[in-house]
Write a structure and sequence with these properties.
Layout: H1 3-12, H2 23-32, E1 36-39, E2 44-49, E3 52-57, H3 67-79, H4 83-86
Antiparallel strand pairs: 1-2, 2-3
Helix pairs in contact: 1-2
Length: 87
């Protein structure tokens, strides 16, 4: 994981929740963590990491994720036990 990935992870767990996180940065972080990403219907993306699975919607037409997605991503990363190793 490079510096950019660590920064994205830090931003995901910041309080208050930020709404200017680029979805591309989140996807790159997940890939760096070893997640399996697969396309779903429409804008859905299926993610599997450390035995935990989730489905997220890519933002459209904006590039930034909304606060609800960031909160869900926090929960997903916590359940996948990634946070304790990295943050």
């Amino acid at each position: 994981m490079n510096k950019r990935h660590r920064q994205t992870l830090k931003v995901i767990f910041e309080n208050p929740v930020r709404s200017n996180v680029l979805w591309d940065d989140v996807e790159k972080l997940l890939i760096a963590l070893g997640a399996e990403l697969s396309e779903g219907r429409g804008l859905r993306i299926r993610i599997a990491l450390n035995g935990i699975r989730a489905v997220f919607h890519r933002p459209h037409p904006r590039k930034e994720t909304d606060k609800g997605v960031i909160v869900s991503m926090r929960r997903f990363l916590t359940e996948a036990e990634v946070v304790e190793d990295v943050v």
